[in-house]
Structure formats: structure tokens, C-alpha cells
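Progress against Task 2.4 (sequence-to-structure conversion) is shown through the following example record, which the project officer requested during the mid-term review.
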Amino acid sequence: MSLTLPLRRPFGTSPVLSVVAVVVLLALPGRPGGEGGAGPADAMSAVAVAHCAVRLLRERRRPLSRTAAVVLALPVAGLALAAAGAVSPGAGITGLGRYLQVFVLVPAAVLLLIRDRRDFRLLAWSLVALALWQGVLGVRQYLTGTGASYEGADVRAVGTFGASDVMGMATVVSFGLVCAVGLALGRATGRERWAAAACALVLLPPLALSFSRGAWIATAVTVTVQLALAGPRRALRVGAAAVAAGVVLLGGFGVGTAMLQERFDSITRVADAPDQSVTDRYTMWAAATGMWREHPLTGVGLKGFPEYRDGHASLALSSGSDTAGAGAAFRRRPLLSPHNMYLLVLGEQGLIGLLGLAGGWLALLVCALRNVRRTRRSPGGRECALVACGLLVWQLVDFAYADIGGPSTVLTAVCLGLAAWWALSGSATAERVPEPGEAVAR
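C-alpha cells generated for the chain above:
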């Protein structure tokens, strides 16, 4: 005799809500011209880690599989060595805490707090909602001339992140767009797919108005990968619709301005006629490489790039970058990082640190892509696969043009946790994971 029991459970009981709270807090406005540092979302991420630890102690279960523990712990040895070699104990402790938060603790907590695909989709939709909110604010800033300064005009869309973190809104909108595309290409309900597709189209203008070339490139590469993973037929249909919508939104509604066109064209001139920002970036990349050559194994220590930069940079490096607008006064800010995560890690942590961090990311990507094949037999996980792989690919591509820093950095940790759940959690790719409302025989 068998008894069928419904598996419905209210969202209010989901442990992943503590992670959703991290995303929600990033919708709050920041301080104009603020110096960054830990914010409400970072504090909430610590609460989520503590929440996860309490649940593990209460349930008395093995927290991670052996593979997950090894992959997530890979960066620890390199980070410890680089912290020991930092220019000061304070810098070492601060840098170690930040790296552990972003690349170890929060991703592990997200992996453990997600119980099933329903929780995964809830977190993905929260990223889409945050992107829509920031995107609306960004478009309004462009239309009203209240954004960050760009070429003498306050038109750069930055959302609530302000002129001090011009990449913040671009990162958030990109994450939301990648999630929306993954949900639209998945095999969820028809209503959910159409809603996700509409959100993806709505997020195109704010992404364009962020004037972030790195975010554009990373998003284009990621969506191409998602379309390829979804299959050729669906990729062709969605690709054609996206191109048509992009033409209408970016051209027909006046988003394709001369400044935007010039910014887009500058992508092809980064080698022939680079602007000062690109020249600064090349110079800082060379400086990070020079630091690594002098300290090949362990680097110059965590947070050591600003201290060693001038000794390795050429005279082509400017004195800083100008920021203004979005409620902040004009300010000259020093260049404190090479804007390339791989070279930052190489310069500050050496080969040991780079192999630990990048090795963990590569392992995540390999495991995530390997699990994609299983969705052909278990179609319910297709949208989770596309979202997780998309977020991971976007981050790995964007790390070639950016590094961690600013309030939006905590979202990097959340997205790595989503990717880790798909890549390393056995329940993510199980043949039968009951969906909400589905009955199971007891």
C-alpha cells in the first residue's frame, strides 16, 4: 500500500532566503562618493554563512562531498601564503578575509543552503529582479542627465552604486540578463519562459547605457555559450529574436547615441589607437607581470599591488581616474588594481595563488559542463544548467577586464555558489528531483 504526499512547501521556510536577502540589500542606495568597504550586503553574507553553519551543526550531517570540499578549498593555501607575505599584518588579514568571503565561505554557504531546483530558481529570479531595479534607475539617470560623468556629460548609468563604482550596475544587470536568458532557454513553464525572455530584452538598454566594454564582451560571449548549450534550433530562434529586439530597442528608441556608438567602436581600437583608460590598463597589466617576475611563486603579498605599482609601471600610467556625477563631486581616484583578476592574483599571490584560484574555477566549469549532458535525460534541470554555466562563464571572461572590489563583489560570491551547486551537488543533477506540487509515493 502506498500513500502519495504532496511536496509543497512555502518559500518562507527556505534556508536560501538568507542569500536572497544579500541580493535584496544591494538594491539600497549607496553613499555618493563613498570609499566602498563592507556594506549591508556584505554583513548579510556573513549572516548567511553563520546561518549555514548553525544548520549543519543542528542537522549533524556531512556538509560537503569530498570533491566539493577539495574544489572550494583549493585557494586557501595560496591565500594563506600571500597573507603572510603582505606589506603589513593588517593588509594581510583584511585581504585574506575578503578573498575567503568571496571565493570560499559564501559560495560554500550558497551551495549548502540551496536544497533543490526551486530554491535555485528563486535565487536566480532575485538576481533578475535586482537587475531590473538597477536597470530602471540607470536608464532614468541617462534620460535625465543624473548619471555618472562620461565624456563631460552625466549620462553613464550606474544605478545606486554611484560614480565610485561604475562597474557595479553593469555587473548586476549582466548577471540578471544571463539568468533571464538561462531561464528563457530552459524547460520551465511557458509563462515563466516568456517572462524571462521579456526581462532579458528589457535589460539590454541599461547594459548598453552602462558604457562598460568589459561587461558587453562578457555578456555576448556568455549568451553565445548558453545558446550553444540549449541546442541549435532554439539558439537560432532566440538569436534571431534577440538581434531584432536589439535593433528596435537600441536604434528605434534612440538608445544608439553617438557616444554609445563611439564606445562600441573603441573595442576594435584597443590595440591601434587606445584611449587613456586602455593605456592605463595595459600599463598596470605590465606592472602586475613585473611583480610576478620578481616573486614568481608567492607574489608581493595580498593588497600589495598599490605599494609596488609605481616601481614597475612605465611613465605612460596616468595619475588616476576622474569620477563625478550621480550625486558625487569631481574627484581624482588613484589606480589601485590592474583591472584584471588573473594578473592581480598573479602579482600578489604568485603562481601558487593563481593555480589555486583559477584551478578551482576551471574545475567548477568542467564539472558544470559535464553535468549539462545529464539534463538530456532529466530535462527539469536544463534552466539550472544554463543559468549556472552562464554565470560562471560570464565571471571568468569578465575577470580578464576587471577584478573584485566594490559593493557588487558579494554577488560574485553568490553566483559562484549557484555554479557550485549545479557542478558539485548530487541533488542538482539527480535523475528525479521532485518539483513543487509533485506527489511522491511513500
